[in-house]
Specification:
The structure holds 2 protein chains of 2 kinds. Chain A is globular and about 45 Å long. Chain A is mainly beta. Chain A contains no helices and 12 strands. Chain B is 0% helix and 53% strand. Classes of the chains: A mainly beta, B mainly beta. Chain A binds chain B through residues 33, 35, 37, 42-47, 50, 52, 91, 95-97, 99-108, and chain B through 31-33, 35, 42-43, 45, 48-50, 55-56, 58, 88, 90, 92, 94, 96, 100-108, 110.
C-alpha cells in the first residue's frame, strides 16, 4: 500500500524566513512519481512540481527548492525568503505508474507567513 | 489556455436528493480525475476517466458515479445524498495516456448537504 506522511500540521514563520516542509512516502514500486501542490485560501490546488523516482536531482525554481532522497523516501520542499503570499496549505502526493489518474495525497501542511 | 472549470461553484442540497457536478478540462487534456476534500479525511480520489472510459476508481460507495463525454468534459453524480457527503469536490485534468502527467485542478464545487 502507498502512503504519504506530512508530519507537520502547521508552520508559522515571519516574512523572509525560510521554511522547509517534510514529506515522507511509502511505496513498494520501483517507479513512481511525486508531486507538490499548493492550496491557497481560494481553494484551488496549484501544481508546483512533478518528479519521477529515477530523477533524484534536486531542483530550484525561484524561491522554491526540492530535495528528493530515495534512500530515506523523502521529498522535502523549501521556500526561501518566505512572503505573505506563500501562506497556503501545501500537499505532497504520490502516484504509481499504472495509477490512472490517482494521486495519493498527504494530509497537508498549513504554512502561515506573517509580516 | 483556459484552466479547468467546474460548475456550479456552490450547492446546497437536502439529504436524500441527488446532485450532478460538471467539469470542463483544459483543452487537449483527455484525462479527468475527481477528488473529495473534507477536513476529516483530506483529499480522497473518487475516479478517473480517459477517452470516455473509467480507468480507475477509489473506495467510495456506488452512490458516487461519473461519466465523460467525447469532448472530455466530465460529470459526477451523487445519489441519495448523506450529510457526510458535504465536501469540496475537485476535478483535475491531465494529458492522460500511459504517462503520469501532472494534474491541473479546477476551483472546486462546495457541496453542502442539510
Amino acid at each position: 500500500a502507498q502512503k504519504v506522511t506530512q508530519a507537520q500540521t502547521e508552520i508559522s514563520v515571519v516574512e523572509k524566513e525560510d521554511v522547509t516542509l517534510d514529506c515522507v512516502y511509502e511505496t513498494r514500486d520501483t517507479t513512481y512519481y511525486l508531486f507538490w501542490y499548493k492550496q491557497p485560501p481560494s481553494g484551488e490546488l496549484v501544481f508546483l512540481i512533478r518528479r519521477n523516482s529515477f530523477d533524484e536531482q534536486n531542483e530550484i525554481s525561484g524561491r522554491y527548492s526540492w530535495n528528493f532522497q530515495k534512500s530515506t523516501s523523502s521529498f522535502n520542499f523549501t521556500i526561501t525568503a518566505s512572503q505573505v503570499v506563500d501562506s497556503a496549505v501545501y500537499f505532497c502526493a504520490l502516484s504509481r505508474t499504472d495509477s490512472w489518474g490517482k494521486l495519493q495525497f498527504g494530509a497537508g501542511t498549513q504554512v502561515v507567513v506573517t509580516p | 489556455k483556459a484552466g479547468v472549470t467546474q460548475t456550479p461553484r456552490y450547492l446546497i442540497k437536502t439529504r436524500g436528493q441527488q446532485v450532478t457536478l460538471s467539469c470542463s478540462p483544459i483543452s487537449g487534456h483527455r484525462s479527468v480525475s475527481w477528488y473529495q476534500q473534507t477536513p476529516g479525511q483530506g483529499l480522497q480520489f473518487l475516479f478517473e476517466y480517459f477517452s470516455e472510459t473509467q480507468r480507475n476508481k477509489g473506495n467510495f460507495p456506488g452512490r458516487f458515479s461519473g461519466r465523460q463525454f467525447s469532448n472530455s468534459r466530465s460529470e459526477m453524480n451523487v445519489s441519495t445524498l448523506e450529510l457526510g457527503d458535504s465536501a469540496l469536490y475537485l476535478c483535475a485534468s491531465s494529458l492522460g495516456g500511459r504517462e503520469v502527467y501532472e494534474q491541473y485542478f479546477g476551483p472546486g464545487t462546495r457541496l453542502t448537504v442539510t
